[in-house]
């Protein structure tokens, strides 16, 4: 029964170009090129847990000490008084809807309920140091992975001529460096999808979750269908802008305002050029227009291309959020809020913008 379902799902007419079989793409000593093993698509999952352990060590023993040396405090909000009935109501719905009825039910004043609710909500917020460590980890990975991607792709013909992603497909060989680049990148996104449920919760939680799942699906499908060439270009392009996203947030938490403003300006340039210009007008244009000219289409390719378009929609949403922050930056004279952050962080930053001057003497003057 299960075998029949799997055979039906992995139908060669769906996943492979015409006149191509899974057997023809299976690795073996008698093959003209080195094909990727479809079973290796599961290798990133255990490696993801290695990433989670490495992240835990770095955040708690390296980035935490570094953040404290910059003056970032690990202060947490005061805990709400113990009240089992209010706690049960909070767990049922974190949003306070009907204050009056809840106050009457618990024999409390509305002000007491509202005050407890504010303390309880603040209690769930991570400290600035925790958020700084998270950004430092991501910035470290994206920087290393972008450097590794540059090393891997620099001598690859499809980096300079994107048509090479399709010429000769699907009989394109796989090198060890590309295998590692794919596996490491996939493992990192698996680790983000897993750890997101206990990481800093932001306003775009579900957007990020969809982003991680779409990215994992893209990497998995492109691996199985031997579309690793275009996959490496997509990964390489995305890592560059993500470096600046995390560095902007980390510098903001460290209160290096001048550095934050400079990095934010660089982020706008890099983000728009890579995510809004190069990605749709080079990558997606190639997958949508050039690919059908160079290879026969098959259903799985349309799935792959649809996921690429889904990422573009998320890019547009995030670009709008970044431009909103840029507008506030021009008004306030400094970068406020947090890129892709929670609405509460943004509102807190706006209300306290007159008190955000860094303690570091060299950064006292905002741009």
List keywords for this structure.
homeobox; single chain; 367 residues; disordered C terminus; HD; mainly alpha; Ceramide synthase 5-like
How are the SSEs ordered, and which strands pair?
Elements: H1 2-9, H2 12-15, H3 22-25, H4 44-69, H5 84-92, H6 99-106, H7 110-123, H8 128-153, H9 157-160, H10 176-195, H11 205-224, H12 228-253, H13 257-294, H14 299-332, H15 343-351
Helix pairs in contact: 4-8, 4-10, 6-7, 8-10, 8-12, 10-11, 10-12, 11-14, 12-13, 13-14
Descriptive overview:
- The protein is globular, with a radius of gyration of 24 Å.
- It folds into 2 domains: 29-71 and 127-363, no CATH class; 84-123.
- The model is unreliable at 341-367 (pLDDT under 50).
- α6 packs across α7 (110-123), α8 runs antiparallel to α10 and α13 packs antiparallel against α14.
- Helix content is 68%, strand content 0%.
- The termini are far apart.
- The chain has 15 helices and no strands.
- With 367 residues, the chain is mainly α.
- This is Ceramide synthase 5-like.
- One of its GO terms (biological process) is ceramide biosynthetic process.
- It comes from Galleria mellonella (Greater wax moth).
- Residues 94-127 form the Homeobox domain.
- Residues 96-128 bind DNA.
